[in-house]
Amino acid sequence: MELPLFRHNRPNRVVTFDEYREEGGFEALKKAFSGMSPNDVQQAVMDSGLRGRGGAGFSTGRKWSFVPRDLPGPRWLICNCDEMEPGTYKDRVLLEHNPYSLIEGMTLACYALGVRHAFIFIRKGYEKAAANLARGIEEAKKAGLLGEHILGSEHSIDLDLHLSAGRYICGEETALINALEGKRPNPRSKPPFPAVKGLWQGPTVVNNVETLANVPAIVANGAPWFKGLALNPEGAGSKLFCVSGSVKNRACVELPIGTTLGDIIDGACGGMRDGRKFKACIPGGASTQFLKPEHWTLPMDYETVAKAGSRLGSGGVIVFDEGHCLVEATLNLITFFARESCGWCTPCREGLPYVKEILTRIENGRGEEDDITILREHVKYLNYTFCALAPGAMAPLDGLLRDFEDEVREHITKKKCPFKG
Amino acid sequence: MIPETLKTSLKARVASALTPREAAVDVMKELQAHYGWLTDEAVEEAAALLGLSPLQVEELATFYEMIYRRPVGKKVIHVCDSISCWCADCDKIIQHLKDKLGVGLGGTTADGMFTLIPCCCMGMCGDSPAMSVGGVPYGKLTPELVDEILEMERNNR
């Protein structure tokens, strides 16, 4: 069966507006505007089982349903393209090959939610994706598919680009809203949730690029079709997996939800690099726990990966081989989070540098037995924060202590990193 | 002082935003492109354009990775040190850059050409190790390729 996200892709160049339309692009928009009510569109997304592709995996239909219908004043849709989760590059690959699925998906989402004005929040470094989107928006406007009176209807929808200046926390939805308003992007306290009080205090939905890019295919082909794409009965749709680390071909591929970890690595990536042996991987970007060789046949879906003690997250799969020290790998992850902490709340601002210091000590052979206990306490207490940054940072550390405690202990007893000569 | 043409285009950008301060990042980026970094003067000018206090602009300027509140070289090198690049031995690339440029992290070369800064994931994990020079991304780096890129970027002002 043809998967929805990459089917318009051309190797090494962006698909053109005409090519996208010839292959059925914007037909979903026409279908919705000619015979579906906004509620029908929302219901189709709800029934499809689509879950947020940015990392949290929350039901998109439910997220949309939290927006109050009866509040006066404007409501907003924001596409989160602040893709800065380490190991994640799927939204960049998608937008560098095809900006139109996102544009069409956002127009459909605006129609469903009653939004007049939507934004695409793009990280620094994604200028090529931004240029594709800017061009695509102009083309869609000229063709009457966006802007004033779409397809001659009473509906008018505007899409604006916001080009950011680089900071991981801007991907957190309330921080993103502050950033878009031109305020310092610290996360906001929840509640109120953005669905009720978000951008300029209006009801706001924030969705990931890949999530919104799925909407046209759902509207065009129906919820049962989308559900049927998955390989496991509980799953729905396809997923972009972007693989890095010790594999032969590091690639961003679209595969059915429920594809096993082994099929991603062996099938899509040509196996491990230079005959190395698989030791572990992080399945969904830096804030997820390790998967191990025993998970080789695990179907990659939200529920199944959660049951295995990790999260499908963003689909950024980072593969480690037996030559990799996972203490040092976790130290690298924690260093990232410590640097990207916005400093707003104390556990995160003070806790992450402390964890980093302890891991540095262990990695350098100066760790003590008590350090493991102190690290475990941090895994517990760094959950008491405003946003998900620090809890996310603790996920790989929790995984390290759970699955590779012997490796940590070996650093302490041998007073050196066993992976260094 | 910024030229009138730049001032006019920035005023137009601010006017086109739904609220003036929504344009703050764009204004800071443009001023930075003009001065080479976001000078104190630029902060004041941004504040005047956006209807904010200089302190409010400072709050934003110090938050973002790609807004420089200190003088930098003609081209800033952001070299990624996140996990996928770590797997691809970015430590070796970073050390090579330091040796080649004769600076530490955060340092600017004696000729004022390059500033070397580590950065977080650039979304180039499939092509790691990666860096950007003056905003141009480069991947699959080797020490030899780094030398070539630096040579090219140095000549291509």
Topology of helices and strands:
The complex is a heterodimer of chains A (421) and B (157).
Chain A: H1 17-22, H2 27-35, H3 38-48, H4 60-65, E1 76-81, H5 90-97, H6 100-113, E2 117-122, H7 127-142, E3 158-163, H8 173-180, E4 204-208, H9 209-213, H10 215-221, H11 223-229, E5 238-245, E6 252-256, H12 261-268, E7 278-282, H13 302-307, E8 316-321, H14 326-340, H15 346-363, H16 369-381, H17 389-403, H18 405-414
Parallel strand pairs in A: 1-2, 1-4, 2-3, 5-8
Antiparallel strand pairs in A: 5-6, 7-8
Helix pairs in contact in A: 2-10, 3-6, 3-11, 5-7, 10-11, 14-15, 14-17, 15-16, 16-17
Chain B: H1 4-16, H2 24-35, H3 40-50, H4 54-61, E1 75-80, H5 83-87, H6 90-101, E2 114-119, E3 131-133, E4 136-138, H7 143-155
Parallel strand pairs in B: 1-2
Antiparallel strand pairs in B: 1-3, 3-4
Helix pairs in contact in B: 1-2, 2-3, 3-4
Characterise this structure.
The complex is a heterodimer of chains A (421) and B (157). Chain A is α/β, with parallel strands linked by helices and 421 residues long. Chain A has three domains: 17-227, Rossmann fold (3-Layer(aba) Sandwich), CATH 3.40.50.11540; 230-321, Ubiquitin-like (UB roll), CATH 3.10.20.600; 326-414, NADH-ubiquinone oxidoreductase 51kDa subunit, iron-sulphur binding domain (de novo design (two linked rop proteins)), CATH 1.20.1440.230. Helices cover 43% and strands 11% of the residues of chain A. Chain A has helices spanning 17-22, 27-35, 38-48, 60-65, 90-97, 100-113, 127-142, 173-180, 209-213, 215-221, 223-229, 261-268, 302-307, 326-340, 346-363, 369-381, 389-403, 405-414; strands at 76-81, 117-122, 158-163, 204-208, 238-245, 252-256, 278-282, 316-321. In chain A, a hairpin with a 6-residue loop joins strand 5 and strand 6 (252-256). In chain A, helix 14 packs antiparallel against helix 15 (346-363). The longest helix of chain A is centred in the C-terminal third of the chain and has 18 residues, at 346-363. The mean pLDDT of chain A is 96. Chain B is α+β, with helices and mostly antiparallel strands and 157 residues long. Chain B has two domains: 4-61, Arc Repressor Mutant, subunit A; 75-155, Glutaredoxin, CATH 3.40.30. In chain B, 47% of the residues lie in helices and 11% in strands. The longest helix of chain B has 13 residues, at 4-16. The mean pLDDT of chain B is 96.
